[in-house]
Amino acid sequence: MDRKLIQISDLHLFSDPEAILKNVSTWKSFERVISVIEETHADFDAMIITGDLAHDERLETYVRLKHRLGPLDSRVWLVPGNHDHRPSMAETFSAQVIPERETINFQCHLDGWQLLGLDSQLTGETAGAIDDAQLRWLGERLNSSRDIPTLVFLHHPPVAVGSPWLDAIGLTNAAEFRKIVEGAGQIRGIFFGHIHQEFQAELGPIACYATPSTGVQFKPDSDTLVVDARPPGFRVITLGDDTIETHVVRVPID
Ligand SMILES: [Fe+2]
Question: Where does residue 209 rank: exposed (0-12), middle (13-18), buried (19+ CB within 10 A)?
Fold first, then answer.
C-alpha cells in the first residue's frame, strides 16, 4: 500500500499573528496551506517540517504552532533551520526530538521505509553545516539499514541551486555529506527548504528536492534576493515499495 508524506518548509512565523514579512502575513499564509492539507491530504502518514518554523526565535511562536497543529502533531517530524531557536523548538516539540542529542534529529520507520532528519543549523549563521556527530550518526544509521529505502530531510541545500546569493549560504560541508549519502545505496531522495522555491537536482544518483515556503517565495535564478509573486505551497511525496513520486501543490492566498 502506498504511503503519503507531506513536506512543508520555511514557515517564518512570529509570536504576533499579525506580523508581516516582506509583505506576506506568514501566519495567514501558513494557515491557508495547512487548511488545504487538512482538506485534501488528511490521510497523510507523516508531515516533515524542514526548518525556519519561527522567524523571531520566541518560545511563544513554537507553542502557537504546536497548538495550531493540534491532532496533526502526532504525525509531525521536524528539523531546525537557520532562523530557529533550538532550545525553544526542542522544548515545545519534545516528543519528536531524539533525547540526549545536542542537535534536533529524527528517525522514523514507516512501512518498510526509513526517514532521517538532520539538523544543519550553524548557530548564529545563515549558512549551514552538519556536525561530525551527526555525520557519524547518519553513517551508522545507513550502515545498519542497507536494505531499507531511506529519505533524508534537512534545511540547507546540499547542492547548488542556481542563485549565487543562495549558493553562498547553503550547506558549507556538503562534500562530507555527499561522501556518506552517495556511498549508501538506499537513499531514494533528499528533501530540503531554505531557498523558498521549488527546485530539483541530482546529487550523484540521488534526486534532491526543495519545497516552497508556506509564506514568502524567492525568485529562482537570481543574483540577489528577489521576492517571487508565486503563491506558497507544500510537497506531497508518495512512497511505493521502493520508489517515490513527488509533486508540489501551490496554494493561492486571497
Ligand atoms: Fe527560510
Answer: buried
